[in-house]
Amino acid sequence: DNHFNYEKAHNFKVHTFRGPHWCEYCANFMWGLIAQGVRCSDCGLNVHKQCSKYVPNDCQPDLKRIKRVYCCDLTTLVKAHNTQRPMVVDICILEIESRGLKSEGIYRVSGFTEHIEDVKMAFDRDGDKADVSANI
């Protein structure tokens, strides 16, 4: 069973809606021409700015809205992928263990900054298809 109860707060940003819009919390109309309310950048929930303070921490991130693996909190990744751990953790552990028999100090010696950046870019570009093998 991959259903875990992680509490996740919404990531609200001020938003200008095109056309009429109603608050998904109080169901009242959002008045104004610009910046009528806020939208959660992780799940897309649209609410009044004042209602955003009362919305429960029940954000269910949508994979389509997550553009990068890094610069994203781990709870968002876990909820979006419906997994116990972020896929980044699993992929990195598998790669570390596959090289572990041939590499001394693999768990205690930090990698080179350039290589770390290459791995981060691979995850941001390719997600769970990222090649984090020794070839990158």
**Mean of residue pLDDT?**
80
**Element order, helices and strands?**
EEEHHH
Terminal Cα span: 34 Å
Rg from Cα: 20 Å
**Largest sheet properties:** 3 strands, antiparallel
| Structural domain tally | 2
Number of strands: 3
Instruction: Report the helical percentage.
Output: 25-40%
Poorly predicted sequence stretches spanning 5 or more consecutive residues? none
Tally of helical segments:
3
- Spatial shape: elongated
In what order do the strands lie side by side in the largest sheet? 1-2-3
Structural class: alpha+beta
Strand content: 5-15%
Q: Mind explaining what this structure looks like?
A:
By secondary structure, this protein is α+β, with helices and mostly antiparallel strands. The chain folds into two domains: 1-60, Wheat Germ Agglutinin (Isolectin 2), domain 1; 67-135, no CATH class. It is built from three helices and three strands; from the N terminus they run βββααα. The chain has helices at 74-81, 87-100, 113-126; strands at residues 12-15, 37-40, 46-47. The protein has a three-stranded antiparallel beta sheet, with no helix packed on it.
